[in-house]
Amino acid sequence: MNDLWGRWTKAIDEELPAAIDLRHAVHADPRGSGDEEDTARLVARALGAGDGTRVAKTGRAIPLPGGDGPVVALRAELDALPVLEGTGVPWASGNEFMHACGHDVHLAALVAVCRAALRVGVPRPILALLQPREETSPPGALDIVESGVLAEAGVDAVIGAHVQPRLAHGVVAAVPGPVNASTDEFEVTLHGQGGHAGYPQLLRDPILALSQLVVSLQQLASRRIDPVFGAVCSVGRIQGGAAANVVPNSASAFGSLRLMRAKDRERALETLAEIVHGTARAYGCTAELEISPCEPVLDNDPALATGAQRWLSHGGFVVDDQFRSFGADDFAHYCGGGTRGLMLFVGLGDTAGVPSLHDERFLPRDQAVVQVAHALVAGYLAALEAPAP
Ligand SMILES: [Zn+2]
Fold first, then answer.
1. Rounded to two decimals, what is the model's pTM?
2. How far is the CA of 169 from the centre of ligand 1 (A)?
3. How far is CA 294 from CA 133, 176, 363, in A?
4. What is the per-residue pLDDT across 322-331, written as a single tens digit (0 to 9) for each?
5. Ligand 1 geometric centre to CA of 162 (Å)
6. Checking DSSP bridges between strand 246-247 and strand 286-293, what pairing results, if any?
7. What domains can be seen in the chain, in order of their start residue?
């Protein structure tokens, strides 16, 4: 197996110049969620193993010839974000979208890994998964899982790797168990009685009630969920009123509830409803609450994670076995329900001074392509060594 690592990574090195050109081409002409047709076509052509099967409307599942036994799917995301690019590189985006989440790097790495695999020959079949709509809801990963294409292809394990500026260059995180949070988005509207701002005794002020609600929601994480596992309840948007001297009839808040443990979800949603309706009542208002489930917890398969750790060390990476965040990724849908999943995080720089994911200046160096590629190989070899239970 050491021999396979050596031959495969050497072949990846040889694929690198073309992969970096592809990265620049994808970056220069990004497509938003649901509109990834051109990117999918470009990447599939570069991969050179045919068009495969169309998945989730604009995605592709491309089986590579060769190998035997349960299939290992390697996944990369196709979509960019509605961000105006501010990097100033010659290959910057020419439209209103930007690859500000590193998906251009992931796609180029996947192509290098697959082309190299075709050249060296690998023992287990690979399914290259070009996944659309990672950045939006309903997510592409859920469509792919629900379509049954993974089960049909005989996929046992799905491997993904994501660039991560919060980890130092040369570090890859391979963490067993939950690494990204589940997400539910919520929308609250409080209805009161509006009127003249100078006569508060005649009103039921929804702005004041909503202000208290935003504060009170913080007790959900601090007092209702075991802090060892944690929860985050953040309001990202509030809306209400049109003038300084008029209290409106209603006001709304939009936020997300994030959890690291699936079994906390019922209690957290009950608590959310209790705080919303209780606060509204205390201010003489009524409340409407709407919940939209987004992603489940991203739960890495422990055997895949520990297997990948060994290969990453072998490949000269510093391995992080602790990195978790309350970010969310639709990769979570591949972890369970018939397939095992492993998401690796590839370090880009020290924590200070590197723009974060989704920042208009976010620009991983080209070297990240080879690091993501090696991480995918480590995941593949881990799946080979740790057969499905
Ligand atoms: Zn991303």
1. 0.91
2. 18
3. 13, 22, 27
4. 999 999 999 9
5. 7
6. unpaired
7. 2-178+297-385 (3.40.630.10), 182-295 (3.30.70.360)
